Inverse folding.
């Protein structure tokens, strides 16, 4: 793997603020993914979710349910533990864009009408984490130190000499 790319993936802001965002957002994504993949928490599992996705034009439905559920569950897990947060956040952001425009947008903003406000909030959180990285108390921070990537302060790398 290209060392510059590796450094960029693991480089992170040295703030605690990302932890406050990563944990709840990651848990929410994991729970929604578990609904799709395993039928947990009142979900419909792959079969039911796949039928729904096919009914709204996301075909093949079973494969789309597997992809969306995996992106949410495993992307959420990555956010919680702080591993590969930037790629996981990009993946969850993409998943939210698809959900917003394929399911919720036509219903308007508000959740009470099955609108896109919740998806938009998760999209914003995912984009924020894709930009900032995992922050403190993350596997990415540990890996960044191991491979010699300095943690970021603000928007400029601390490695300028």
């Amino acid at each position: 793997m290209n060392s510059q790319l590796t450094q960029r993936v693991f480089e992170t802001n040295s703030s605690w603020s990302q932890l406050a965002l990563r944990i709840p957002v990651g848990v929410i994504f994991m729970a929604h993914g578990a609904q799709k993949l395993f039928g947990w928490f009142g979900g419909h599992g792959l079969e039911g979710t796949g039928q729904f996705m096919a009914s709204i034009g996301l075909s093949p439905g079973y494969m789309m349910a597997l992809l969306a559920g995996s992106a949410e569950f495993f992307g959420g897990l990555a956010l919680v533990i702080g591993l590969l947060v930037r790629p996981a956040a990009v993946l969850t952001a993409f998943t939210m864009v698809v959900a917003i425009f394929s399911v919720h947008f036509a219903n308007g903003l508000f959740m009470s009408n099955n609108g896109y406000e919740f998806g938009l909030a998760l999209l914003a959180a995912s984009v924020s984490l894709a930009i900032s990285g995992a922050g403190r108390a993350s596997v990415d921070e540990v890996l960044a130190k191991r491979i010699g990537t300095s943690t970021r302060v603000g928007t400029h790398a601390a490695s300028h000499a």
